[in-house]
Task: inverse folding
């Protein structure tokens, strides 16, 4: 097990990727999370059951949209190298469903790779999905966690449908699925079975009164009268409601936490929203970490821990010195918030490359061909990125011997920007042509994927530098 390098009971107001990457390997007992669903709508009312706007500060709220051309080529390359099954799932999705869902899978997969890494061997994950992508997400999960570690697909019946939804021609959609995977088979031992109390007047077939704990819980939840979970719609009238459009019922997450963790365990939710998982964990004596890029993530933790109602909370929010107030309340509950990611102390590698593309890839390159060539020579020297050939042997003419090429070829969707560029000697450039990626070329010239890491130019580092340089230039214009 890893050494925990972050505090207990902490909420990070950040993108979860750098936070997950900053967490030491094998430090988490349970992940229960509910990512955004690629609804292509703004978040407000995205649960679809009531129209509600997210009112408490909208900073950092982005619509659920992902574009294929913003997926980083090197990321896909590395996935292809290290998890071919995941790469194939993403490519197959791209072909059979479309680029948006494929891009969403990329967004999610980088994060799932890190979640897998931070889980202890005895840990497990519950991933909440709606109908838009669940079939594809399950295949990604199989690729990352292993199909043998799949345990259940839980069907959560969302509940009470009314209004125009009932008018729909066809079956009314009324469930989400929750995928339950183990990190390893060791995790199978940790399961605290749940029971539903017998309904009033229940008699056994033999006529005797029931003994025992109740009816063992199945994999369909909130589907029968005896299942005591309330629906999210019912919650909209209750004190539990925070105003967040995609809030899930506390009871749902409490059930998951009771079943698949023990008191004192660490529960993580990287898409914490208004902190349903942290609060559920807190209620059951578990330690917790929540992450959400919404700027008011910590506010929810505080209000829900203190049982402050939505209207009251909004009034408090309007008051000055809110930050101080929140800090004090968190301290009282021995909880924390952070706006910077933790720093790894186990010196291990991240599970996915540290790259993210944040500019539109279909733009024309901001640098000219000659400028890119010059920049790369100045920064990385006169080395061929394919075979490590040192062109400084040719003295001043060395630079002319190196040609500017694409890391991921144009024919495979590679773009023209600096972070998809490499310097190649002429023989390498000829070998690579317009079909091979740089990683494939490296494998061919040096033999074997493992060796590809020992090149004099580290592609991850080079690409990060190029991206920084590019962003610097973009900020100028
Ligand atoms: C479906 S909601 C989670 C709702 C939560 N289960 C609840 O009950 O409140 C998804 C959340 O993920 C957050 N989110 C989306 N992308 C994120 C990212 N890259 N890093 C951190 N949080 C993110 C959104 O801000 C949103 O709050
Ligand atoms: Zn070469």
Result:
């Amino acid at each position: 097990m890893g050494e925990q390098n972050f505090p207990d009971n902490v909420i990070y107001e950040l993108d979860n990727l750098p936070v997950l990457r900053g967490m030491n390997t094998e430090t988490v007992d349970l992940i229960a999370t509910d990512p955004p669903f690629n609804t292509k709508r703004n978040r407000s009312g995205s649960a679809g059951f009531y129209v509600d706007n997210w009112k408490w500060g909208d900073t950092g709220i982005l619509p659920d949209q992902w574009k294929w051309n913003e997926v980083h080529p090197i990321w896909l390359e590395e996935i292809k190298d290290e998890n071919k099954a995941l790469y194939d799932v993403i490519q197959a999705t791209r072909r059979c469903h479309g680029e948006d869902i494929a891009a969403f899978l990329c967004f999610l997969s980088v994060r799932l790779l890190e979640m897998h890494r931070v889980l202890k061997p005895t840990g497990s994950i519950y991933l909440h999905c709606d109908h838009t992508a669940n079939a594809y997400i399950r295949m990604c999960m199989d690729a990352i966690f292993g199909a043998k570690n799949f345990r259940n697909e839980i069907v959560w019946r969302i509940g009470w449908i009314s209004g125009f939804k009932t008018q729909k021609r066809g079956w009314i959609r009324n469930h989400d699925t929750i995928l339950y995977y183990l990190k390893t088979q060791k995790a199978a031992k940790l399961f605290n079975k749940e029971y539903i109390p017998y309904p009033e007047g229940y008699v056994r077939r033999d006529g005797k009164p029931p003994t025992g704990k109740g009816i063992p819980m199945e994999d369909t939840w909130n589907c029968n009268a005896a299942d005591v979970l309330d629906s999210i719609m019912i919650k909209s009238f209750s004190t539990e409601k925070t105003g967040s459009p995609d809030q899930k019922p506390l009871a749902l997450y409490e059930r998951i936490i009771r079943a698949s963790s023990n008191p004192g365990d660490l529960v993580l939710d990287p898409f914490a929203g208004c902190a349903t998982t942290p609060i559920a964990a807190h209620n059951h004596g578990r330690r917790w970490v929540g992450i959400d890029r919404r700027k008011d993530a910590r506010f929810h933790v505080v209000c829900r821990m203190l049982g402050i109602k939505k209207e009251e909370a909004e009034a408090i929010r309007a008051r000055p010195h809110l930050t101080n107030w929140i800090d004090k309340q968190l301290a009282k509950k021995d909880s924390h918030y952070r706006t910077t990611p933790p720093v790894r102390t186990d010196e291990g590698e991240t599970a996915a490359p540290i790259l993210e593309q944040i500019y539109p890839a279909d733009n024309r390159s901001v640098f000219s061909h000659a400028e890119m060539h010059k920049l790369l020579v100045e920064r990385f020297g006169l080395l061929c990125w394919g075979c490590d050939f040192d062109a400084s042997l040719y003295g001043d003419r060395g630079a002319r011997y190196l040609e500017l090429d694409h890391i991921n070829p144009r024919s495979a969707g590679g773009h023209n920007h600096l972070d998809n560029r490499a310097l190649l000697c002429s023989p390498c450039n000829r070998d690579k042509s317009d079909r091979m990626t740089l990683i494939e070329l490296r494998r061919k010239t040096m033999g074997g994927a493992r060796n590809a890491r020992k090149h004099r130019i580290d592609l991850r580092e080079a690409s990060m530098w190029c991206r920084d340089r590019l962003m610097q230039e973009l900020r100028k214009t």
User: Anything to note?
Assistant: The radius of gyration is 25 Å.
